[in-house]
Amino acid sequence: MSDHTVALVLALAVSAVLLGMRPPVTQGVDYQLGHQFYKFYLRESVRSGEWPLWNPYVSLGRPFLADIEASVFYPPNWIFIALPEIPALFLFLTFHFWLAGFFFIKLARHWAAPREAAITLSFAYLMSGPLLGHLQGGLLDYFCGLAYWPLLFYFTERLREKISLRHWLMLVLAATGSFLSGHLQCFWLSAVAFGFYLLGSHLGRPWGRNILCGLQCIGALAGAYVFTLIICAAQLLPLLDLALQGNRTAPSLSFSASGAIDWGTLTSLFVSQPNRSTLTWWDSNLHVGVICTLLGALGLMQWREARVRGLWLMGGMGSMLALGGHTPLFAAMFHLLPGMSAFRMASRYAAFLSWAFLLAGVIAWAKGKFSLGKTLLALAILVAGTMYVVWTSDRFWHSALASAALLVGLTLLTLWTAHRDRGGILAKSRLIWLVLIWAGSVAAAAHMWAYYQHYGGKTHEAEVASLLHKRNLYPPNGVPPRLFLPPYLVKANSGMKYGFSSVAGNLALTSMRVWTYLHIGTGLPVGFFQNTYLPLNAYQAGPFPFPGMNIIVGARKGDRNLSTNPQPGERAYLVYAWEQVPDWFTAIQRMVRDHVDPTKIALLEAPSAGPPSVPANPGHGHAVIESFHLNSIALSVESSAPALLVVAEAWYPGWRATVNGLPVEVLPANVWMRAVRVPAGVSQVELHYVEPSLALGGTISLLALAVLAWIASRARESQA
Hints:
- By secondary structure, the chain is of the alpha+beta class.
- Helices cover 50% and strands 10% of the residues.
- The strands form five sheets. It has a five-stranded antiparallel sheet with strand order 10-11-17-13-14, with no helix packed on it.
- Helix 24 links the parallel strand 8 (578-581) and strand 9.
- Helix 4 packs parallel to helix 7 (140-147), helix 12 (233-245) packs antiparallel against helix 25 (694-719) and helix 14 (290-300) crosses helix 17.
- The radius of gyration is 28 Å and the shape is elongated.
């Protein structure tokens, strides 16, 4: 079989097992809480004929296309539009496992590893803690990003050997796929890791020539990634808009260093420890197996080899950065490394170390022979590491003992091989090593799956949706009923599937306005370290703690019974008095501290608010939502006097409005709501969402693709 076919067979087998086992891979935490709903929403919105620009069902409303985790522009993700979830997920996983496996084989063969070793080590990567662990944790986007690493590294290595336009173009295309797959940090980490590799591989004599070549290679790598960002402008610019409105705080060292590993976590390279006590256990799982770690250690002893020096720097920097505040390096790099301050979870740098050991193992196998002394030294270090885990871990001492037993066996095998073949180690025992890698990878994957904390809690989205239907709380105009329910009753993002609007969300980026108001409004300090989901304590404030929010159904923390709001108010209403405030934070203080009723007085932000208006004889009228769609709302308004139409949906810069066909400004009101001025009499109001930077980003992307095509055609002409 060809390498393509072998990689495809492995990908099909692994994907089938992951979906067929119990619990299946779909029980991963992040998949359950987020990705399944993203896929469903994308499919249903496109099938209904609406482009998924806005998501009205989560966190009072937020952009959908701008959220890179939605992967709207990622072609493999479109399969979820055409097929049901499980068949689509099977093909989606198969493609990414094939991508990772085939290009790892291609890279290993390029480095002169025997074919059977290349296939075996590629399987070890598929089963490794960084790749499979993130998938089993439900981080589908991060898994996709790591699946591109062999492809990205292959073309980075070809550029290191000789800078050519063809390989640079291929690197750009590969990086484009990595970016669009949905995890910006994984994309950025690949650039950092491969930059360290190129730098390290050019350290050595002759220094002047090597430094010049290294700078050229790093420049080519940086240029490829920058050009990738230009190609992806249609996704990048809306994402930046979302980030500017989002709840990520100003860069801070403590934020970026969060989730760091400790020194003991480094032993998970060769001792299976799936969920050590870190913030996100999948990020601290470095496992590649005892044999691969041993091979990597032997490969890393070949210091004279330029590739090995590159792997040393990449793995060493990754492990030091993953330790966060445990070393002074993190603080220094925080100020030197572009983009570092934008991301948290320092433990993710540790993937550099796993990658370095796997690639060093390829180099070791290609060499084929090692001295007895070096092999015994590496074995002794690994045995010491397993004994450390036995001594310090109450949870994983048994897997450490298993690793120690395997290492003792390898020591005996090494001594026997050395006795039979004085020329070196490995050549006489290749088959045994291959079998042990396959068996160890499967065993570690099973151990990982048994220990991972899958999403086991039963929530009740379907039952809640059924109850809402029975009570006729899904109105015919399409307005989604708004819920304030704890996460043990419904998943925060489940409204995307069941058609209700959740006050909270489980999101990487939430509107800073909404995030701050939900915390202060429930008496909690504003949390920015954990900025993904609303704390459970927020539900202690009661089932309906927010005035003017039109919450229909709620529940207090600890309750499992749903409460229906006897006076929920309206989703859209008229007010005849407003007050100018300097900013939205002041508006929060007025609403929470001074108990300003947003249904009576609208708090508008300067400078668009105009002079305060508190008429002596306020008018009267009503607003009716005629239709509610994903990206638009149509209303009819009748008022005896000029008024302010307030819509209890999240404000965002992309919202536009017309009143009787004439464009008007959509004002931010009451911290997070939308407001439109309407005249006296009968008016037809249309609110519609336009992604602010999509047109500009799309134009830049098309121009960049045209330039890329022109460069590719010139490259073919020059080769001809």
